[in-house]
Write a structure and sequence with these properties.
9 helices, DNA-binding, mainly alpha, 2 domains, homodimer
DNA sequence: AATAAAAGTATACCTGGTGTAGTAAGTTAC
DNA sequence: GTAACTTACTACACCAGGTATACTTTTATT
């Protein structure tokens, strides 16, 4: 996406990629807490200050694909609503995010690393949860905005919260059981299916 | 609870209470980021080191009642399961937590302060979400353990994740709308009712 | 009264993160 | 082609959250 953006932009993206890869490698080798930002910068041959010009915190280097995934979900909602009913639109948005995670962050091992670091680093766990929470809020708002007559804020927040909460909890449980990637994404899909029954609680016209 | 525990323990609890009250007051007056741990310690007439002997991080001083609330939910599950069906047991546990929040942390303003700080301090938001996530995991495990034949880990994680996710999302939405405390707790109860329909997705014997 | 345990003190230190000013490379205009 | 403008990056000083260590003082035990 957007390739020919001049040498300056290309070098910037290169620095960014190098920082991400270097950080992932060092976190893997030495552990998260034992790897300082200074170490990552040193190994990537830039200064510590440059790291923070690319990522607001140490944890954010693990979340590079997050924003794109949220945009994906918002695009699905924008394209499918309000022709399709809320339940189907939300289902498709959630499934798009699950598929995106499986295709972009399983090959390079980023999802697995993040899941592992989440278990034994409070800071990583906190950052990931905050990203999920923010994404959830944006999706809920987009869904409400797509059906302004039939969905209020609290209801939209509830059904999206239920879906996202269920999917995340199932993913964590699966990963802690040591499941293979395919088993984990299947568990996420099943959790979504279960949570989407929250729509059964709503009136006919809100589903 | 447990009053006569000797002068030493009483003084320790007194120091702890003073730190909590002082921190809450200063956060209110000057804002969270503008108040350093050193300031809180100074105002409470102890050293910075003493603060960290009572609370592992600056954020934790806002979460003092959290653990007790989780224990409450676990006790409800322990007492009511497996006689009552999973759906009812989870509903009662959630309602107990909502009621406890409303009764213990609305009078002293702690809930309101925490909600406010959560909005404009990433660190507070992160810590609160992490606490919720941990609580959710413990409740899911307790529920699964109470019905070992009929609930697997992923399913338990899904329904609890749905319920907790919905309640939290609804609470945040309500608080950001500036609702009064009673309106917020009502929104939480409604969200729980909606999310508990996730049980409809399960087989007859798992509900 | 003597001893042990534990809360709190004093102080130095580490690391994540920011402010500021400057350099050098890349881009744009003449 | 060169001058002028941007901007990614550097260098360095600094702050706040959090930890390690060694010490003092109060409470509990016998």
């Amino acid at each position: 996406m957007a390739e020919g953006l001049g040498r300056r932009e290309r070098k910037k993206q290169q620095t960014r990629r190098t920082l991400i890869e270097t950080a992932a490698r060092l976190f893997n080798e030495r552990g998260y807490d034992a790897t300082g930002v200074a170490d990552v910068a040193e190994a990537a041959d830039v200064t510590k200050r440059t790291f923070f010009l690319h990522f607001p915190t140490k944890e954010d280097v693990l979340l590079s694909d997050g924003p794109a995934r949220v945009e994906l979900a918002l695009r699905v909602i924008d394209e499918r609503a309000p022709q399709a009913p809320p339940r189907e639109v939300l289902a498709e948005a959630i499934h798009a995010m699950i598929a995106d995670t499986a295709s972009r962050e399983l090959p390079n091992g980023m999802a697995a690393l993040r899941a592992r670091l989440m278990v034994d680093s409070p800071a990583v766990q906190a950052r990931v949860l905050r990203a999920v929470f923010t994404a959830q809020a944006r999706i809920a708002e987009a869904l409400r905005a797509a059906y302004p007559e039939t969905l209020d804020r609290a209801t939209a927040a509830s059904v999206v919260g239920a879906a996202v909460g269920a999917v995340c909890a199932a993913a964590m449980a699966s990963l802690q059981d040591g499941d293979a990637p395919e088993a984990t994404s299947e568990a996420m899909r099943q959790a979504a299916a279960i949570a989407l029954h929250a729509f059964d609680a709503l009136g006919e016209e809100s589903r």
